[in-house]
Write a structure and sequence with these properties.
190 residues, alpha/beta, Rossmann fold, 5-stranded parallel sheet, 7 helices, 5 strands, 39% helix, globular
């Protein structure tokens, strides 16, 4: 089983990173091969909206995203984690998501409308952390995750969402939060 963790925070070792670490720890099992992507380290460009992938299912931009496509394609389970910025995922993570348009284009080329109603490439989850109390704090990120996983031909299984985690290590004061993250990982692989 191939498991991919996508670290969407620009802040190294913050709450989002720590929660995703705990999720992957829970998901670790004998047959699990775990890969990690730290979007803050990637050198990728934004989608050009050129339509090049519409005909081939391949992005015309040659950058580090070419390596990421392979990891996305091979994963059976993807855990994507992000702090909430303006009610959505971070700009760094959104860049990766936008570039996944090529995978959506490939899906359109390879599957009929009926076949696209079924997701055959695995499961995707979102781990989101927000500092504020906004009633709809996670809705934008959840919609983004749902359609990202749709492009990857994966079921969006939901995730875990935490409010009031602002300070870089606030999660360390909430052992129940870390346990919930561990449980998500463990449950996803069982």
């Amino acid at each position: 089983m191939k498991i991919l963790g996508i670290y969407g925070s620009p802040r190294k070792n913050g709450n989002t990173d720590q929660l995703l670490d705990k999720v992957l720890e829970g998901a670790a099992c004998d047959d699990a091969e775990i890969s990690k992507i730290y979007v803050r380290k990637l050198d990728i460009k934004g989608c050009l909206g050129c339509g090049g992938c519409d005909k081939t299912g391949q992005c015309v931009i040659k950058d580090e995203m070419q390596t990421i496509y392979l990891l996305l394609e091979e994963a059976d389970i993807i855990f994507m984690a992000s702090p909430i910025y303006f009610y959505s995922v971070t700009a760094q993570l959104k860049l990766l998501i936008d570039r996944s348009q090529a995978m959506w284009s490939r899906r359109l080329l390879e599957k009929s409308t009926e076949e696209r109603k079924l997701y055959t490439n695995g499961k995707g989850y979102l781990i989101a952390v927000g500092a504020t109390r906004g009633e709809n704090l996670f809705e934008g990120a959840q919609l983004t995750a749902k359609y990202f996983y749709d492009a990857l031909d994966m079921d969006y299984e939901g995730g875990i969402f935490f409010r009031h985690l602002d300070e870089k290590t606030a999660v360390n004061d909430n052992p129940e939060t870390l346990q919930e993250a561990y449980n998500l990982g463990k449950g996803a692989v069982s």
